[in-house]
Amino acid sequence: MITGILILLPLAFSLLIFSLRDERQIRMAALTGSVAEFLVSAYGLFLYSTQCHCNWLLDIGWIPSLHINLSFGIDGISLLMVLLTTFLTPLIILSSLEHSYRKPSAFYGLIMLMEMAFIGVFTASDGLVFYIFWELALIPAYFICAVWGGNDRIRITFKFFIYTFTGSLFMLVALIWLYFRTPQPHTFEIIYLYAAHLTPAEQTWIFLAFFLAFAIKIPIFPFHTWQPDTYTESPAGGTMLLAGIMLKMGTYGLIRFLLPICPVALKEWGWLAMILAVTGIIYASVIAIRQSDMKRLVAWSSIAHVGLIAAGIFALTPKALEGAVIQMVSHGINITGLFIIISIIEKRTGTREISRISGLAAKAPWLAVLFMIVLLGSIGLPLTNGFVGEFLLLLGIFEYNYWIAAVAGLTIIFSAVYMLWMYQRTMLGNPMEDLEISGDISMKEAIPLIPLVVMIFWIGIFPGFFLNLAEPAVRTILNLMH
Amino acid sequence: MKDLIVTLIPVFPLLGFLILGLGFNRIPKKLASLIGPGTVLISFILSFIIFVIIAAGSRRGVQTWPVTEVFNWMTFGGLSLSFSFYIDPLSALMLLVVTGVGFLIHVYSIGYMEHDQGYNRFFAYMNLFVFFMLILVMGANYLIMFIGWEGVGLCSYLLIGFWFRNQEFNNAAKKAFIMNRIGDLGFLLGMFLLFTTFGSLNYIDVFHNAKGFLPGTGVVTAITLLLFAGAVGKSAQIPLYTWLPDAMAGPTPVSALIHAATMVTAGVYMVARSNILYALAPATMTVVAVTGLVTALFAAAIAIYQNDIKKILAYSTISQLGYMFLGLGLGAFTGAMFHLITHAFFKALLFLAAGSVIHAMDGEQDIRKMGGLGSALPKTRWTFLIGTITIAGMPPFAGFFSKDEILSSVFTHSMILWVVAVTGALMTAFYMFRLYFLTFSGNFRGNIKQLQHLRDAEPVMMIPLILLAFLSVTGGIINLPALAGGSAWLHSFLGPVFADATPLLKGPVYFLDAQTDYLLVGVTIVYVAVMIVVAWSRFVKKSLIPDEATILRSPVARILTNKFYIDELYDLLFVRPSLWLSKVCHDVMEIRIIDRTVNGAGTLVVKAGNTIRYLQTGHVGFYVFMMVVGIIAILLFNLVI
After folding, report:
1. Is B325 at the interface with chain A, CB within 8 A?
2. A290 in contact with chain B, both atoms CB, cutoff 8 A
3. How far apart are CA A54 and CA A237, in angstroms?
4. Between chain A and chain B, how many beta carbons pairs sit less than 8 Å apart?
5. What percentage of chain A carries pLDDT values higher than 90?
6. A chain contacts of residue B174, beta-carbon cutoff 8 Å
7. Kind plus residue range of the DSSP H or E element containing A68
8. Are B204 and B343 found together in one domain?
9. Check: complex ipTM more than 0.95
10. pLDDT in tens, B130-170
11. How many domains does chain B have?
12. In this predicted structure, what is the pLDDT of residue B539?
């Protein structure tokens, strides 16, 4: 029931927004819709934690002849991802309200449509339904970037679309293959996909297909080349949706599909995936050191951070997997915070070039404070959300292999290097002269940041609540592998 | 009740931070001067109560101490890591040092920072620092220690770059944070190895389980080495020491509290805390001792040719920390802790006195431009002199006893090491008296403007100085050796903490009887006195002012003045290569190879499409023809099979 509402509500609001003309009404509708969606999911969380057995299964016949059903369900990991989506979307909308976009009805309508697709992806318990929502999310993402993006948007979004779409096709092939390997009557139902009988060779092919699809989405080195350009050229809100939520579809897919379906192939090829992920951490960190555009720097840092998440998933230990789930939430929060701050700075200074910005802290002390807090979360200082995830991830990877953990651990040094460098250049030093808006961050600008800051400390200081949600689901996934 | 008090100790500085931090500049200065030091004072009083309880217990022969659980931090994989505190004699002692010295420095700051725009921000950061330092000291497991460990690093970063308009200072702050993080990675990996080896991070469990290991076990050696990497970063030892001299960019009270008295001693505390693990790893102990000794000499040598009053003190801090690690490495845990405590007193004193000088001299820090300040700043001069004598190790001041304890334990291990260690002590005496004479004796070398308002600072700054001077003089009492008619209280107090480690340590090679000890002490004192006289004759009698041109003629002096070119070396070895690597990764690997491959794959598909497109002619006849060809081909194929 709740799952149904969660999917239909954003869809309804999306259609409503498309039909509206007045900008004020559009903004109101987008805000109301996303907040309502958050409240529904919060109520769901309340139900979930009080009556832990309900999985809110929703099963509607769709194509009976092929036994394809619109079926949804929720476990701890799904729930956390759904909450991340419904929590971030209103904040992204709020921060977008600071800008005026042409054709606002399309802009906000697409955001709501995207939210629906995300929820669908995170709750689908049917392979085909998962795939459909997966592709559905791409379409609004493409339009948001292609219509409201920067100068070079057409070329870049085209590449983004083709690249990720190609990846997804491999997943579709894998899903269809799996379909024919399920017991009679064939079905895409996830639990039957888990039970599909596969020869080791088949598993390897399915592993490769899934890996390619998810690796491109996340992105894992060396499938990342679409990402820095796309993040940089997209409008602020689009970047936040991509980095904050959309990439989690990839890591979620790894956990939901790759791990339980291809355990044998993972034993054989998991090390390769691990090495790619860890290489990506170092590679992206090293490149981030020299970036001159704030957005691009954060984009590269994101490749490094999600590389660690991916490495944790491939470590296949309970700690690393729990860490991965927590870090997916934390990364979504931190990176959205960073992009919001960058968009505030860009509005103030008219640029994102680090070398052209300086000394904002003197003029905007609260902005400096908020930036510092988000930055600390992102570099994983203890008592912030980033630490909990990084600690569990690295500990889990350490159990997998000492040396890989030592190399992956370099991320805590590198992230300090490039993040503090960016902070120092932009916020500290003598204040720059030509500010378009001087003065401190306004209440309206701060509102989307405050819930993020609260979450940074909440997860950092009391991670127990979130870990308890994730743990049973993580255990189930790992048990499925045996 | 006791649990409540323990829990409240760190709460007050945290509250102070939150009030001052969130209140920003809306809180009046008067109130801020009350909240900043006041919260630390409350913590000090609470710490004192706890200390009395622990001391009373230890007199009754208590050997175990309870853990205070505050809340459950995280649970994973069936294991829980709780946010809990552990107060034993070691941490009780550290609590007193942190809150006591911390409080005095907070009071001093009221005067020192009076005219600074960021007054409230300063106290907010200082309170936050005290909070994290308390967490570090009080934690009942390595993870809680790590929270404090990284937290004090953050505060150090914030306070070094306190005057954030100056990018030089910001660079120093960033350098400190990053070098600390390099060490922290070692600490983190050490924790992981601890966890996988012992299944827990709680001190009590780890130390209990450690008893089952044989000395020299590889995994314990690895754990201790990794943890020591963290200590090397935090306590500024070779090779990660270069951040500390730069850290002097922060306001002087910060240098006194964080970069001399408390934070930098965290590494010493950590090793003393993990004494059983280190005792099980003789190889690591050797590494600790060698690192300490080399650092002690290295930093002392650099200090001889420095001219910035705070930098000299910074190098002397590095050098003194080296002595502490030397003591730890030789198993003299109590001696190292003793020196940690007296060092906290006299180094805080020296820094605060230096701050008073800088204050009077309008921010001038170059001792070549000072001179003759003794008459104008009598109180500062006398307190500074006390500090100088203490650090030089003249009896009966505190530094003498603590340093002697380390030196005599060096002697019992090796006479050669003892000679080397004493050489370092002599260098200390020389550069400290060089500093003292150049600053306070001779003629005034500053400008008229400075001369006009040259006077001792106000009481709010002088009283902490005088109290610290008192502690520097008398601090030796806490561990007065039997030779000097004392009862070595610290030994008996900390004894139970180190009880399990002591039997594992290598026994002394030489036996130290009373006569030998007197002889060694006598020799040391005489040589130190000689060094003082040498310094006096150079800088007072001949009134030689160090001059770049003459000094740089001697190659040794040139190397020392340039601090062995270590910063330049690191720049060449690490900074430049990583920037170069970054460029190569981006320009070559990323653009030329990976991206080109991806785009190439795309282009290939398009080209293939263009080629195949010619088959799509649009003629139905052609299609039918192809279809027939296809069917025949399939039939033939089936026939053949």
Report:
1. no
2. yes
3. 34
4. 122
5. 68
6. 420-421, 424
7. strand A68-72
8. yes
9. no
10. 999 999 999 999 999 999 999 999 999 999 999 999 999 99
11. 2
12. 87
